[in-house]
Each structure stands twice: as structure tokens, then as C-alpha cells.
Known about the structure:
Elements: E1 8-12, E2 23-28, H1 32-35, E3 61-66, E4 73-84, H2 86-89, E5 99-103
Parallel strand pairs: 2-3
Antiparallel strand pairs: 1-2, 3-4, 4-5
Amino acid sequence: MAFSSTAAFQLWPGSLANGRGAGWMVLTTDSTSAASATGWLAGAMRGGRGSSTIGMSTGDVCFVHHLTGGAGVFTSRIITGSTADQASTSTSTGFNASYNGTLTP
């Protein structure tokens, strides 16, 4: 299971920290190494117009619950970067442009 915006929810808003440092919880069956891949937070970053944009920003805290191997593993990470999703920006209109986020390893 890759990242899914339907399995992510905001714990606290960034407005508590001057617009940065919102807290997020993400549930996934991906391994911890898979979640460390560049752009794993596919389409989730603020500024995108795709259907999975949920407003994550660089500097936000992301708690990831890896639902594998029985009880699973729980990690806390920082969103360190945002890159344009090449497939979404290559359309003739670019209307569905989205941005992918990357977590600290």
C-alpha cells in the first residue's frame, strides 16, 4: 500500500506554531524504508491541485504507524521536502499539478 491521503489526518494545525509544524498521523502497510523514499507522501503537499492534496508542509511533524507484522511500528518524522509530481504536471493543462513530500529517514 502506497501513501493514501484517506489514511492520513491532521492532529494539530500549523497555526499553533506560526503556520509551521502541523502534526499529522499516517497509517500505512508500507515498511519504514519504503516510507523513507523520496516523494512517498504522493500529492499530499500544500499548493497542489490534485485530489489527494491535504495541506502538508515542509517542517510539519508526521507520525507514521506502519501496520505490518502484528502490532506494527510507530515512527515520528519531519517532512523535509516537496517536489512536483512529474506525471501530474506533464498534462496539457497542468491543472492537476500536485506535490510529493519526503520524510526524514
